[in-house]
Amino acid sequence: FTTQQTTVATEGQTAVSVDASYTDGFVDVYLNGVRLITGVDYTETNASTITLASGATAGDEIQTVSWKELGALLKQTGRIIESLIPMQKCALLAPQDAEAHSNLGTH
Predict the structure, then answer these.
(1) DSSP one-letter string for the chain
(2) CA nearest to 48, candidates 90, 104, 7
(3) Other residues' Cβ atoms within 10 Å of the Cβ of residue 63
(4) Contact 64, 22 (CB under 8 A)
(5) What pLDDT shows up at residue 58?
(6) Is the pLDDT of residue 107 over 60?
(7) CA separation, residue 90 to residues 6, 8, 58, 59 (Å)
(8) Distance CA 6, CA 8 (A)
């Protein structure tokens, strides 16, 4: 199980499958190391696909990081200290999300 993955794009590719899945609002997408902006550069299509606003160039690297899933996985495997960074990221991404704060013990 992984919560981040890198996909090497084909020419014109817009749909990118996220094998680990993600929770809406808790995923970051990078194109060749540059963070993309949700709703501008890509949309969160469903829990397992993101769609780029414009087609990628063959060989582009598209990385996805599923923050909520990463924090939960680290916590479940007893890596409590390591789980704090992704959980803090979740609280920053969605300050209104009660679960994100509950995971940190701040709500």
Answers:
(1) --SEEEEEPPTT--EEE-TT---TT-EEEEETTEEPPBTTTEEEEETTEEEESSPPPTT-EEEEEEHHHHHHHHHHTT-HHHHHHHHHHHHHH-TT-HHHHHHHT--
(2) 7
(3) 17
(4) yes
(5) 98
(6) no
(7) 20, 26, 31, 30
(8) 7
Whether residue 73 contacts residue 21, with contact meaning beta carbons closer than 8 Å, is answered with: no
Nearest in space to 50 (alpha carbons), one of 35, 38, 68: 38
Distance CA(104)–CA(96), nearest Å, equals 14
Task: Of 48, 58, 55, 52, give the one whose Cα is nearest residue 5.
Answer: 48
Cβ-based neighbours of 21, under 8 Å, separated by 6 or more: 47, 48, 66, 69
Proportion of the chain above pLDDT 70, given as a percent: 96
Whether 83 contacts 46, CB under 8 Å: no
Distance of CA 43 to the CA centre of its chain: 12
Q: What's the Cα-to-Cα distance from 95 to each of 21, 25, 35, 101, 106, rounded to whole Å?
A: 21, 11, 20, 8, 11
